[in-house]
Fold this sequence. Notes:
- The chain is built from eleven helices and nine strands.
- It is of the alpha+beta class.
- Strands 2-3-7-6 form a four-stranded antiparallel sheet, with no helix packed on it.
- β2 and β3 (151-162) form a beta hairpin.
- α9 (317-342) packs antiparallel against α10 (352-361).
- The protein is globular, with a radius of gyration of 21 Å.
- The two termini are 41 Å apart.
Amino acid sequence: MPLPAPKSSWAQDLGEFRELARSFCQKELVPHQERWNQQKSVDRELWTKAGEVGLLAISIPEEYGGGGGTFAHEAVLYEEQARSGDSSWGVSVHNGIVAHYLLHYATEEKKKEWLPKLASGEWVAAIGMTEPGTGSDLQGIKTRAVREGDEYVINGAKTFISNGGMADVVVVACKTDPDAGAAGVSLIVVETDRPGFRRGRVLDKVGLKGQDTAELFFDDVRVPAANLLGEEGQGFIQMMQQLPQERLIIAVTAVAGMEAAIDLTIEYTKGRTAFGRPVYNFQNSKFKLADAATEAVVARAFLDQCIERHLKGELDVQGAAMVKLWTTERANKVVDDCVQLHGGYGYMTEYPIARAWTDLRISRIFGGTSEIMREVISRTL
């Protein structure tokens, strides 16, 4: 039988919310996978539908239009999305990342202006960190923001930006002091209807085919000085403060994706015959799946521990790096074994296991590569 559904202690009181999330994912995500893969984006209406049922800004306080929940609500949604097989909807960037930058660092006036638009789906949100010449090295960004009176003038380019093709608002990492290294980085909010903002290609990726990952360009884009998050030079510190949640989100989707892949493979191997008997009945199949199931249970236990710590405000940089490193590395190994057990059909894109294989590969890269995670961890030893 398939692995049991998660019964994590942090989610014990969220049964009704899980049902809402599961129902939404099955109704609004599952039927559209092939079309979204072809068009390289979800439908714009998906965001307003999600807003209407209360799945956007769910861990943002109600006074700003949010759901008033916690990261536990976020995790349930991301689990159900991953278990549905969808990787197109960039809700984790919108909900779990951008909304929290605005909540923690925007002025009270701007929070009341911006966050309700994220909660309703009127705005789709993105964050612009990565540049063509910089990957995980956020100190090396070249995008420049120059203060002119009560405005900032922004010039530069960003790439690999999730939700970038559809975003109405982008939190942009800029250099306000190009000679100050990390201390010269600031975060500035850019509404995408401003003159000088333009989008480049929606990128053609190996996986996450339905997610609108785009290039963004800023040519003398003027924004009010009030769009600065916090103070000048605080951007790098702000990113470091928010990265643990981002890395935890990646771990949540990795574990849920691993669990879903194992379920698919158990079902497939028990139904597929070779040499007159089910593929599952071969010792290699049973042993590979026994190893995979064990990996998933261990990863789930570690993930649950980290979620509990995060809900208490205790998840540190080291812990977030460890859980991202461990879960994404193990998920990639497990899903690769699951593809092998599908044989030739595991290489066919119409099979969910093939899509899971390509979609999960990026988990070892974005949010900080596995190599960066090891560097982060080693600094704390």
